[in-house]
Amino acid sequence: DVKVTQSSRYLVKRTGEKVFLECVQDMDHENMFWYRQDPGLGLRLIYFSYDVKMKEKGDIPEGYSVSREKKERFSLILESASTNQTSMYLCASSPNGGDTDTQYFGPGTRLTVL
Amino acid sequence: AQSVAQPEDQVNVAEGNPLTVKCTYSVSGNPYLFWYVQYPNRGLQFLLKYITGDNLVKGSYGFEAEFNKSQTSFHLKKPSALVSDSALYFCAVRDIGGSNYQLIWGAGTKLIIKP
After folding, report:
1. Contacts of A16 (CB under 8 A, 6+ apart)
2. Which of A65, A79, A92, B107 has CB atoms 3.0–4.6 Å from A42's, for a disulfide?
3. B24-33 burial by CB neighbour count: b if 16+ within 10 A, else e?
4. How many CA atoms lie within 13 A of A4 on its CB side?
5. What are A's interface residues with B at a Cβ cutoff of 8 A?
6. pLDDT tens per residue, range B28-79
7. Neighboring chain B residues of A107 at a CB cutoff of 8 Å
């Protein structure tokens, strides 16, 4: 089974702090994604990566950056956390090839910025 | 612009009754369509997808979905609901004629199955 893990289930940070959210997948998937999930808005794509050191902006990249130094790990960075970044953050991965559109999700990190 | 609509924020169904969770989409080309489920305190799980072929797609946990091109819909169905089906359901679409492979997600529908 594909396993996607996220470094924390719950995180509380203060405004202005730098925040790192880590995601690791164990199935050698090429593609990795960071979403935020807010009630009534569904999932919104922040960034995705289709290869090591490659990244593309999603729909809401402002205030975020990402890093992918190794294939299995995709990090989301909030350079200076703000209260409007309080949300549930979901990481996902998918393979290239025939099953590329099936995304496998981690359990999520609920971030609260005070 | 591509979009996905889930017109109901919440659907309430009695256990044992059939359930339907609605999804309509708008893409410029042919769609790939997906349903995912999020159980309380758990990550999203893939349920089923339509790529091509038979319009009725069967997935996990007894769920199925029907692709209707003329109505641009992909409604999720189950003949007999279980209390354990209570969860948040998301519809998603990708335009296979598009330039990237991002999924566009609906806002989600909360399904509540009452004993």
Report:
1. A80, A81
2. B107
3. bbebeeebbb
4. 27
5. 4, 31, 40-45, 48, 56, 58, 90, 92, 100-108
6. 888 899 999 999 878 899 999 998 889 999 999 999 999 999 999 999 999 9
7. 41-43
